[in-house]
Amino acid sequence: MTLKQRYEGILGYFRENVPVAESELHFDSPFQLLVAVILSAQCTDKRVNMTTPALFAAYPDPESLAAAEFDDVLALVRSISYPNSKARHLIGMAQKLLSNFGGQVPSGIDELMSLPGVGRKTANVVASVTWGEPVIAVDTHVFRVARRLGLSRGTTPRAVELDLERHIPEELRPIAHHWLILHGRYICTAQKPKCAGCPLAHWCKEYGA
I need a labelling partner for 79 at 20 to 30 A (CA). Which of 9, 39, 121, 196 fits? Predict the structure, then answer.
């Protein structure tokens, strides 16, 4: 099977069988999405969704979060992984949104990455989900799934990102990001992947081997 055939088969399956795939984070605005994605680093979406209602109620916009006291934010995100650094990043992010971007979440990857707590993966998620930018965020799920399926041999998230963007059409990249994440979250899990019932087994390089 050629790489082109593998991509065509996998993308074709998803297009036909998973026409809707969205973030499992709960948010009502680009700002809330940015906050949620910062919190989601090395943390489950389920835990983030348990934490953000109180956080958003207390700090619904960049202005309120930028003026927040560190200890108050920390108290609201204490159940999240790395709460001290994330609380600090959230306040700094909100302050920079106000000082550099008029309180608006920017659409550019480099602009997003200039915000405290925002790396490439976070920037790509926000740009893709909010603005429909043709980028693919590579988290642990996407990295694992892409390599197992044989979509990439990259050894770093950036290398996998470039491989995926090289072979996935621009118009499919925003949803393809979610296809791969959800497949990794529920089927191609890190431990005990459900290979026997996987609908992508026919195209999977690792399963075929």
Answer: 121
